[in-house]
Amino acid sequence: MLRQNRLKIMVQTGILCRQPAVLDNAQADWPRWSVMAEQRHAVDRLSWISAYALRLGLLLGVWWILSGSTGDWWFGLPLAVFAAAVSLWLTPPGRFRLRLHRMPFFAGFFLWQSLLAGWDVARRTLSPALPLRPEILHLPVVLPEGAPTWWLMLVISLLPGTLSVRLDEERSLEVHCLDSRLDVPASVRETELQIALLFGLRISGADGGQHS
Amino acid sequence: MILIDLLQGMLLLAGVGFFLVGTLGILRFPDVYTRVHALTKADNLGLGLIVFGLLLGAESVPVALKLLLIWGLALVASATAGYLVARAARRRGVKPWKARSGGGA
Amino acid sequence: MNWLLEVVAVLLLVTLVLGLIRIWRGPTVADRMLAAQLFGTTGVGLLLVLAELQQMPALRDVALVLALLAVMAVLAFVARVWRQDPNDNHEGPS
Amino acid sequence: MPWLDLLLGLTLVVTAGLALAARDMFRAVVMFIVFGLLMALAWVRLQAPDIALAEAAIGAGLTGVLLLDTLGYLRRPFGSRVDKPEKHQ
Q1: Which among A97, A63, A100, A98 has a CA at the least distance from the CA of A80?
Q2: pLDDT value of position C45
Q3: How far apart are CA A119 and CA A178, in angstroms?
Q4: ipTM, 2 decimals?
Q5: Hey, where are the domains in chain B?
Q6: Percent of residues, chain A, with pLDDT higher than 90
């Protein structure tokens, strides 16, 4: 069953401009969403500097953890400086930035959902009848390309009954679900919302998009 | 103290339980895709519960953070591995298993 | 608490042994690779438990390395072994 | 922990045997990867965490990758079995 919809991605900043996916309107309960970047993240010198500072801080934290706070900073500090530079060279700063203050909320959502997911799999495995009704669904992705979509695809695989299989050119995500009787589109939508919040993107509800 | 020990024991046993369930799922589930489900979900939850159980007995903050780092790494690793295997299987045209009519319970 | 950690370690090892069945039976190569990834995750858990049990903090580093490198096998599998289309079995990967 | 050691030792021997006995090369490679992992655990039980680290990195990690890569370059000696449609067990 194809759940396709026409989506309009309204982009405030003009950076994320893209054509609305050409999909038909079979599923009426899919709300028409739009994604708006909250603010412009131009890839300028300032963002390079802040990205460098963030990554350096992260790497120093990782060194602190790995070295067990023994204080071997004569080795760790130059290494972190070098590694942060290499990471900037390999992956330049993207348009999207994690909102660190949203991280605890997202972690709570994620932990709870993965608990449910493990429980769901356990229930199905241990039941003698093996209640599976796998199906492949095609769901449109509203999140912009890049880091948010990658987060979505990874997180979906850890949520109850869903597994991302692949993403095609028209930004429709193939999801393999364990039980087609569950409301998979709703949970994927919820995940998208959480990730949008994590990245500081605004997803407006059913009245946001333009229907056609 | 006894309460913490009890909680730790429960978390560890629950973690092992999910590992067992995950392996059982890998054995029982009918095709590659469903097995990826068992692998990514049950096992990561099992590892997470074990990590949280050990966190309660961690002697210092860096040790606790290292445990969390290992869990995060394992999460990303197996989610990526599951996605890659599922995509490769799909690209090669491995058909997903379908329940027979009225299948499931 | 040590007896509990021992029980947990033995049960995790039992889980590993059960996983061997899937590797042996297959039936597709992807199933084998998945079971290998399962071994990686279970091995990480087992190493963490052993680190606590034997009072060897270095084992946590072993677990970290294992978590990193266990995926590499899956990556190599997807990128190298299973890269071809199903229809061109006569041609090796270039 | 005699149970753990006994089970570990037995599994190690069984895995080595299976890796040798496997006619399917891919199965042998995966068995070898598993063998490396179990060997790392055995080094841990022998109180040698540094060797365990090397074994986990080299045995379970890098050698597995190299062997899989080699398999990819061989002309699919295991080809016909790969895409056999599965039956529900």
Answers
A1: A63
A2: 92
A3: 13
A4: 0.78
A5: 2-91
A6: 3
Q: Chain B contacts of A120, Cβ < 8 Å?
A: 41
DSSP state of A18: -
Question: Which residues have CB under 8 Å from D48's CB, separation 6+?
Answer: none
Q: Which residue of B has its CA nearest to D88?
A: B30
Residue A163 contacts by C-beta under 8 Å, 6 or more apart in sequence? Answer: A156, A157, A175, A176, A177, B33, B36, B37, B40, B82, B83, B86
The three-class DSSP label of residue B56 is coil
**Phi then psi for C27, rounded to 5 degrees?**
-80, -30
Question: How many contacts does A have with B, using Cβ atoms within 8 A?
Answer: 126
Helix boundaries (H) for chain B: 2-28, 32-38, 44-55, 61-91
Angstrom distance (rounded) from CA B83 to CA B89: 10
Q: CB of A196 within 8 A of CB of A151?
A: no
pLDDT reported for residue B91 = 79
From CA A7, how far away is CA A4, in angstroms rounded? 9
Instruction: Count interface pairs C-D at CB distance under 8 A.
Output: 143
Is A19 a residue whose pLDDT tops 70? no
Interchain contact B76–A (C-beta under 8 A):
yes
Summarize pLDDT for C33-82 with one digit per residue, the tens: 888 888 889 999 999 999 988 888 888 889 999 988 888 888 888 887 77
Q: What is the pLDDT of residues B56-103, one digit of tens each?
A: 888 788 888 999 999 999 999 888 888 888 888 887 777 777 766 544
Tell me the one-letter amino acid at A49. I
More confident call, B32 vs B49: B49
Chain D CB contacts of C93 under 8 Å are 72-73
Contact A122 B90 (CB under 8 A): no
Is A4 a residue whose pLDDT tops 50? no
Instruction: Look at D86 and B31 and tell me if their CB atoms are within 8 Å.
Output: yes
Q: Give yes or no for a cis peptide into C27 (omega within 30° of 0).
A: yes
Helix (H, G, I), strand (E, B) or coil at A159: coil
